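User: Teach me something about this protein's shape.
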Amino acid sequence: MSKPITLIGAPTDIGAGMRGASMGPEALRVADLKATLESHGLFVEDLGNLAGPSNPWSPPVDGYRHLDEVIAWNHHVHDAVLGALQQGSLPILLGGDHSLAIGSISAVARHCRAQGKHLRVLWLDAHADFNTSVITPSGNLHGMPLACLCGLGPTELTGLSDQRPAIDAAAIRQIGIRSVDLGEKQLVHRMGLDVFDMRYIDETGMRHTMEQALFGLDENTHLHVSFDVDFLDPEIAPGVGTTVPGGPTYREAQLCMEMIADTGRLGSLDVMELNPALDLRNKTADLAVDLLESLFGKSTLMRRA
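Assistant: First, the predicted structure itself:
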């Protein structure tokens, strides 16, 4: 029997460079996320939205914008995600900007160590999100979550899990990357991350990409998917604050989600950076829900399994 699903809203754009991602959780609810998942026989509980500090919209200090507020939000996210996991549920964090993945994945990593499980993180994103306060061009913490999770950042964020770093770089598979700052690129190479960028997808196809990204999963692996909606091509998903042309098409994205579902290993999920203020009639939220449905049972397969 499938695990129950827990929806956790985190309505903040505290780590972003543009306002609007704070409305992402409600846009996903308007797009009938809960009912869509329930249509596949899943039990879904919506815990509503977490509360945290408001966005002061201040300039960076020592290379970080809104560091104190980002820390506070990530503590709330960590505790909520960890609580859901400990109760045997599959948490879906509804963002909000991608800085919140620090708290989410820190909680998942802590839970995996307690359960003796291996962790694999699929980072679906147009951006590497591996900046630090030294190399960031903006100070926005939504460009730093993976670096923080790998131990590069302020101790209040790198120490959210039960050990520092929260995760090993070897656990990460980045997919769809196509916008990386120069200093960030050098850091990603130095840390040895597995990156399946858009050129790789263009050259080898989404099927081969996902086969490589999912290689080695076994029954003792917890798979976490951190899905930044700007992973998708902006022609089909305009409702994000940091659009980058040349992302996966609808069919490529569907194949990506279906192959993840085929593993049966999905244990937790982030849905990040949806910005309804930039969307058209909730088009991007509807698409995101459609893709999430593929993670939980919808398939184009007509042949028997």
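Now, about its shape. Residues 47 and 111 are 20 Å apart (CA to CA). Residues 5-295 form a domain with the Arginase; Chain A fold (CATH 3.40.800.10). If you'd like, I can walk through any region in more detail.
User: That's plenty for now, thanks!
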